[in-house]
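As promised in the previous annual report, we have extended the structural survey to additional targets. Below is the entry for Trub2p.
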Amino acid sequence: MHKNISGVCVMGVNKGTSGTHTVREGRLVRTYSLGGCFGFATDTAFHDGKVLTKATYRHITKSKLARLLMMIQASHQQSAVHFLGLDLQSQAAYEAISEEGMVRPGEKSPPLIYSLNILDFNPPNFTLEVSCINENNYFFQDLIHKIGLQLKSNAVCTHMRCIRYGPWTLQHALLRKHWTLEHIINNINISWPLIRGIKPESPSLRDIDTDKYSEDVAEG
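The corresponding C-alpha cell record, generated without further manual editing, is:
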C-alpha cells in the first residue's frame, strides 16, 4: 500500500501468509473514498505537490460531475468487456455489464472501475466512492486530474482511503493503538472464515463462459 493510501490493508502472519496469497489470487474488488479539490493542478496530481496552474471552478455543479462520473464508469465497463474479447452487442456482454455481477478478466488487466459515485460535493472540495480492481495511487491521482480537465478546470487528489477490500471493511481494521497480541489474534480468528469464503464463482469475481457464448453466436 502506498504511503498516501490509508484504510483497510490485509496482512498475514506466519502461516497466515498463505491466506494473503488466496486474497491476492482472488483479485477482490476494493472500494475507496477519494478526496479531490478543484481549482489548481500540481506536478504530482496530489495536493502536496508543486502548484503548476490555477483555474476557476465555480461553473462546476454536482450534476455536471455526476454525469461525467457516469460516462467514466460506462467507459470502464466497455473496456472490461473488450478485454474479455466479447462483442458489445452479444448476450455475454449484456450479462457482463448487468447489475447481477462484475466482469473479472481472466488475466491481469489495467485498472478497471466498477462503480463511481459522489459521496460529498462542497466546492472546491469533493469526495468520491470508487470500486475497482488493479488500481494504484497513480491511477487515482490521474483520475482526479482528468476529472478536473474534463470539467474545464483543474483538480488534485487530497486523500485516498480503502474502505472495503472484498469482505473486509473498516470495522475489521485495527487502529495503531490496537496493534497488540490480543487484538491481532482476535482479528485473525475473525478473518479466517472470510478468507475461506473467497471463491472465483462469487458474484463479484465471476468469470464469463466465453466458449459457451461463442457457440451461441456461431449458431445464431
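Helices lie at 17-26, 62-83, 91-96, 137-150, 181-196, 210-219. The two ends are 47 Å apart (CA to CA). These points will be discussed at the next consortium meeting with the crystallography subgroup.
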